[in-house]
Amino acid sequence: MLVTADLHTHSAYSFDADYDPAQMLAAAAEDGLRQICITDHVDFYTPSDVHLPDFAARSARLAQLRGQFPQLTVLEGAEVSMTADPACARSAMAALDGVKLDFVIGSVHTIGAENVWADAFYASRTREAAYRLYLETILLSLDSLPQLDVLGHYDFVAHYAPYTDRAMQYDDAPDVFDAIFRWLVAHGKTMEINTSAWEADEPWGLDILRRFRELGGRFVTVGSDAHNPRALGRRFREAGALAEQAGLALAFYRGHEPQLL
What we know:
34% of the residues lie in helices and 23% in strands. The protein is an alpha/beta fold. The radius of gyration is 17 Å and the shape is globular.
């Protein structure tokens, strides 16, 4: 199944990326993509740990660039960090109020005061404990962000894991996966295949995607989580194959409405 849309990308409007949207769009066009969504970070971890894009400036910049890339559908989005803290959720919702976006990704990056990308998170935890805790945190955080369109990188914890076998599997926490999937389906949301966690390993997730389909999921989005132009569209052939084998269609979003590819 051909994947033409990269719906999880970051530009210099994210605190952790350095590339102007023009560089991202040029790379997307060169790679043959047809749709790209810039989903810069919206993070409200604590009152002193906040990351918020200048949405107005970014929108104006993208408006300047669209005419230069007529082969691309250029979409505007955000990746919002979800936590179980209602105050963080309220702050994120307030920040998005009045901002015209096509697409919102809800993702978990921290658990309490711990950063999932930090070595310390894994130091005292087994693979099973770390993966279950991460998935449980997703489940506890979903209600905090009603604006999300898609659950981002369910396997973010595997990306940074130091274990020999990093691949996340449905059997790691079947009860939690089922609860997450039932929430997504009941609320008209979906999930993404995020190719960044695989790194150089074999792709994983077919068992997870098949279970999502069994519980009522109809389609998924695909994102590279690119923070630089070189990473755009990374391993999309494999992502498309997983979706096809799981019986799921591919979609992109315009004005929060899914459109099948």
